[in-house]
Specification:
The complex is a heterodimer of chains A (about 280) and B (about 280). Chain A is globular, with a radius of gyration of 23 Å. In chain A, a hairpin with a 5-residue loop joins strand 1 and strand 2. The two termini of chain A are about 35 Å apart. Chain A has one domain: MetI-like (MetI-like fold), CATH 1.10.3720. Helix content of chain A is about 80%, strand content about 0%. Chain A has about 280 residues and is mainly α. Chain B is mainly alpha-helical. Chain B is globular. A two-stranded antiparallel ribbon of chain B has the order 1-2. Chain B has 13 helices and two strands, in the order ααββααααααααααα. The chains are: A mainly alpha (about 280), B mainly alpha (about 280). Chains A and B meet through helix 1, helix 3, helix 4, helix 5 and helix 8 of A and helix 2, helix 4, helix 5, helix 6 and helix 7 of B.
Chain lengths: ~280, ~280
Amino acid sequence: MKLRDFFLLPAALWFTVFILLPLLIVVIVSFATRGTYGGIEWSWTLQNYSRAFSPTYLGIFLESFQLALVTTVVCLVLGVLISWAMATASPKLRQVYLMAIVLPFLTNLVIRIYAIRMFVGAEGPLQAGLELLGIPFDPYALTQNKVLVLYGMVTTYLPFMVLPLYGAFEKFDFSLVEAAQDLGAGLWKILFSVILPNLKTALWAGALLVFIPSLGEYVIPDLLGGAKNMLYGNLITEQFLKSRDWPFGAALSVLMMVLLLAMAALFRLREARHDK
Amino acid sequence: MTSNAERRRPAAPRTATVVLWLTLLLLHTPIVVMIVGALIEKKPTAWSWTLRWFAEVILDQALMDALVNSLKVGFAASVFSTLIGTAAVVGLYRSAGMWKWAVEGLSVVSLIFPEIVFALSLLSLFFVLKFELGLLTVVIAHVSFSISYVMMTVGARLATLDRSYEDAARDLGASEWQSYRTVVLPLLLPSILGGFILSFLLSFDDFLITYFVNGVGKDTLPVKLYTAMKLGVSPKLNALSSLMFVMTLLALIFFFRSSAFRVFFESGRRTHGENTKKENS
């Protein structure tokens, strides 16, 4: 073993004990049985998995999948336009835009959600404005709904889309755009036939980076969606922290991991084919 | 050279710029409203400016305890993750084979896994090992997700490092260890500082993972805020959130100034420059 391998040792050990081992435990627990008082009984069963596929839970999963998908698509459309505008701005302005996009992303999620709740809340400017204009509204429906959840999700995950796309735009050869313009193509035609085909890898990377955390999101739907909108992340969290059915919660998370890994694998496969 | 490349960028359509500005507006408006909300007070007749809510936050012992917990955890977690992450990056440098593959793979896994899986798998580990939940388990969890970020920050700098410095040191008779200590580490120092600040930020801001693995009565600031927010919004919470926002902002300014962040984009631009040079010749 060389000196540099010793440098790797702490990280290798830490990752093994605190990332690999815990994942392994979750997989094992997912085959165990729930104890009478909420503990884990080590008798093996597949029941947790068959339960996860029952209509109620499948419905919750589909709802979350749909939200993650919509979030990804909205981020994709916004991300392309935003990073295009950013990349073609003056170099100084580009730095400012980059900071402005990254800043909210690096500040606390709970604070950002608090700010949103305050904005739409009882003493917030939105309700005051509606009152002033004499538009009737339902205060409860206004503070907890699906639109707010989507807004929270998009503003949280947008940087994950913008950063890879902006990076790709920085490397993009803009003389191709000029050439297309010389040939008489409009900007929107250029976007679809010249720019986007050259950004494929970044588009896929951004989509995955948004989709993966969106699918298991807990905090945003919990605080902005209210009790009516149960999502997959909330379902898992509830098994672990409230109803204390760890084996079922573990099975739900294993299923989610398998799905996400499959998607990541597909992405790698697509890239590998692209390289050939 | 760069200025030449800059000139040839046909502007995006106006719609794209409008979308950019609208999004920035949507992103920042709630935060501005929150800060204003922390600074005003409703008097019987009119609204007036006040620092009352900030005073209430500072005089709240439970909140101050949570702040101390957050700072303790943040400091401990960033020291450990910076040490482990930096060592790993130096080890990965020029290394090959199984070890490199395993560490790099695991670091990517820790980056892309959904937070919730991270949180509940650590909770399961502590449960199975009968580890008592407390600040220590929070520190362990924070180190686990920060290492990869330190590796990314320091690794980006190492990738652009001129290897001839190290070769020169070795030629002059320095041992492998000496060349790391006297040549490589000083050159990496700014990015190591950047990694430290980044992991402190990540730790200070983390809610979900802390929520899962912290012990009873050992709340950090974000957990406290979450629990309080469940009951509704109040000017005092506005003040607390604004204070936390300003703290993060200060750390961020340090982070950007440490130039660690810029490395990502500069390395990209440099390759672009080289490409065009080749094409021109």
